[in-house]
Specification:
This protein is mainly α. The protein folds into two domains: about 1-110, Non-ribosomal Peptide Synthetase Peptidyl Carrier Protein, Chain A, CATH 1.10.1200.120; about 115-159, no CATH class. It is about 60% helix and about 5% strand. The protein is built from six helices and four strands, in the order H-H-E-H-E-H-H-E-E-H. The chain has helices at about 1-10, 15-50, 70-75, 80-110, 115, 150-159, and strands spanning about 60, 80, 120, 130. Helix 2 (about 15-50) packs across helix 4 (about 80-110). The radius of gyration is 30 Å and the shape is elongated. Keywords: Cell membrane, Ion channel, Ion transport, Membrane, Transmembrane, Transmembrane helix, Transport.
Length: about 160
């Protein structure tokens, strides 16, 4: 029962739910990009390459002539599918570019000031902490220059 409670807590964390939503949206986006590449980008490229269907570009390794890629695959011939590979490559580049643009926007929204990324060391317990902290999270000492009363007593004891 404890395992199921831990699993529930893990699955309901914001990061896991966000990741799940990202995967679903990414799958849908991938289908849109695939259609964009196959139906909009590749036909003009095929037209430029003497009116051929770009997905039909392949190298036949068996030596037998086939009318199309589907015929060669149905016959079990070994083929190198150049056109399909180039379509997949263009698909990947579009998705990678979109993800890059998304990451740039997320970083602009998050815009963390430089001071928040700097760290300092607590002079009492030597824990690395944010330079904006007013108290050490480890030993709870006051970091604004005035030590807390607890540390004053400790200094007196150890002197």
């Amino acid at each position: 029962m404890r395992f199921l409670y831990g699993l529930k807590e893990f699955l309901l964390r914001g990061n896991v739910v966000d990741m799940g939503i990202g995967i679903i949206i990414g799958t849908a986006f991938s289908k849109i990009v695939q259609s964009f590449v196959s139906d909009i980008v590749m036909p003009p490229i095929g037209l430029l390459l003497s009116s051929t269907d770009f997905s039909e570009l392949y190298l036949n390794l068996s030596g037998t002539k086939y009318a199309s890629l589907q015929d060669a695959q149905a016959a079990g011939a070994a083929t190198i599918n150049v056109g399909l590979f180039i379509e997949t490559l263009i698909h990947f580049l579009i998705v990678a570019f979109a993800v890059y643009l998304f990451i740039i926007q997320v970083n602009k929204v998050r815009n963390v000031p430089i001071e928040q990324t700097r760290f300092t060391t607590c002079s009492y317990c030597y824990t690395t902490i944010s330079s904006l902290a007013s108290r050490c999270p480890n030993c709870t000492s006051n970091l604004n220059g005035t030590p807390s009363s607890n540390h004053d007593r400790m200094k007196v004891r150890f002197k």
